[in-house]
From TrEMBL:
Signal peptide, first to last residue: 1-28
CC terms in the record's Gene Ontology section: cytosol
Pfam families with a match to the protein in the record: CreA
InterPro entries in alphabetical order: Uncharacterised_CreA
Superkingdom classification of source: Bacteria
Keyword Heme: no
Keyword DNA repair: no
Entry keywords, A to Z: Signal
Protein name as catalogued: CREA protein
Length: 167
């Protein structure tokens, strides 16, 4: 007999979906696209704003494989883990409720494959040096990657507003 979801089941699914959306990190805006060869491979440049730190913008690059390249080399559902990041102060800095532990906090995530691989930007606060660190790396379900890029935004000497008080 086929399962027919009841109204409570549908509400539970809808609530779970809304909670999942609420946990999504910052969105990116594509600000540049550079073609790198005749078969259609491109490098994209996205501007990423940190949802908890206003006044800082990170520019993240990633490689987008063309259909021809995917057919030629196989590995149809995946883009390379090559990426770079540069973050700068782009306005007055206001820091909200950020995670202050050593593992930092994920501020951006974008899929590099159908299921298995994501480009992640993680923010870490270096209290001793009063600096925000942004790490771009890929996360794979089955195999990690050592390819990464880092950018820092020094807060020393800057006028910074901490919503919850400076740690």
């Amino acid at each position: 007999m086929p399962f027919t979801p009841s109204v409570p089941h549908l509400r539970t699914l809808a609530t779970a979906g809304l909670l999942a959306l609420a946990a999504i990190p910052a969105a990116a805006e594509t600000v540049g696209k550079v073609g790198v060869d005749w078969i259609g491979n491109d490098i994209y440049i996205d501007a990423v704003t940190d949802p908890e730190v206003s006044g800082v913008t990170c520019h993240v690059t990633y490689f987008d494989r063309s259909v021809i390249d995917r057919l030629k080399k196989g590995n149809w559902f995946e883009d390379p883990s090559n990426n770079a990041i540069s973050c700068q102060q782009t306005g007055p800095i206001t820091i909200g409720d950020i995670d202050l532990d050593r593992e930092g906090e994920e501020v951006f995530k974008s899929g590099l494959s159908l299921i298995w691989k994501s480009l992640i930007v993680t923010r870490i606060y270096d209290k001793k040096n009063d600096t925000l660190i942004y790490l771009a790396h890929s996360r794979e379900l089955t195999e990690g990657s050592a390819k990464m890029s880092i950018s820092t935004v020094p807060l020393y000497g800057e006028t910074v507003t901490w919503s919850n008080g400076k740690p």
